[in-house]
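thought: fold this chain, then report.
action: predict
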Amino acid sequence: MKTVLTFVLFFFLAGLAFAQDQGITSELHGNNVGKIVWAKERITFKEQDRIPLADVFAADEPIYGRVYLPKSLVRLGADEDGGRCPNPASQYRIKILINGESRGVLNEQWFESDSWTTVQVTPRLAPGDDGDRQNRGVTDTWTAMVNELPDGDHGVAFEFWGGPEDCEIMFAQGGFTLSKAGDVTATLGILPEAKMTDPQLSQEMIQAVKDQGWTNEYPVDVVIIEPEWRLIRDLLGNIIRREINTHVVLKKNADGSCRANDISFTQQHLGGNQFGKTEFYGLGLRSYPVACP
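observation:
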C-alpha cells in the first residue's frame, strides 16, 4: 500500500511541477499574448508596464523587444496541435521577414528556465548595454541584415517559433517600420573593470584561446573579472584545480572588428601551492561588440 501511495504522490507532484509556469507576468503581457512588442529601451521583467512601446525605429536607434507567450514552451509543446512537437528543452528560433521576404533566423536558443512565458529579443543595443545571454550574437546578425538594405522605410516582421528544428510551431509575432539612412555599426559595449592585473597570466590565457584553433577570429586582450582564483575541490575536500573568469576580446579576421566573450580558464592542482599551465575551460553565452584595443 505504501508503495502505491508513493507512486501516486510522485506522479501528482511531477504533474503539478509540469503544470506550473510564470503565467501572465504583467498587464502588458496580458494584452499582448502571442505578440512581440517593441521599445527603445529594455523591457525589463520588473518594469514591463512602465516602458513606452514603439512601432517605428531609425536604424541607428536602440531596438528592444519582448515575446509574450500564453504558456511555457514545455507546456505549449505538450498541448498545441495535439502535442506533435514536444519541447522539453524549451528550444526556440526567431525568424525575420523584411518587406515580406524571409531573411532567415535571427536567434536560435533555449529558455534558461522551463517556466518562462516571456523572453527578450534585442536587435540593437543602447550604448553601454553589453547584451544578455539569450541574445548572444543577435546584434551582429541584425546589423549585417540592416546594412544590406537600401535607404528608406522597411517593414520588419519577427516570428517566434518553438520546438525542435524538425518540428516547430509559431507562437508569437510582431514587427515595426525601420527607417534607414546610411549604414550602421553595432553599438559598442563596455568591458567590465579588471579585478586582477597579471600580464604574464593574460598572455597564457591568450595562448590558451589560440590553441582552440578558431579560424574566424583571434584573441587580442583579456580582462580578468575576479580578484583571485577559485579553488575547486572534490567530495573529500581535496583541491583538484582552480578556475577564474574573464572577458576575452576577439578580433575578427573578416573585417577587423572586435567582440568580447566571457571565457573561463583553469589550472590543475599539482600539490602544495603548485598549479599547472593555464588552460581554456569554458565559453560562456555573453558576446558583445567592443572597441578594439
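thought: worth noting. The chain has a mean pLDDT of 92.
final: C-alpha cells above.
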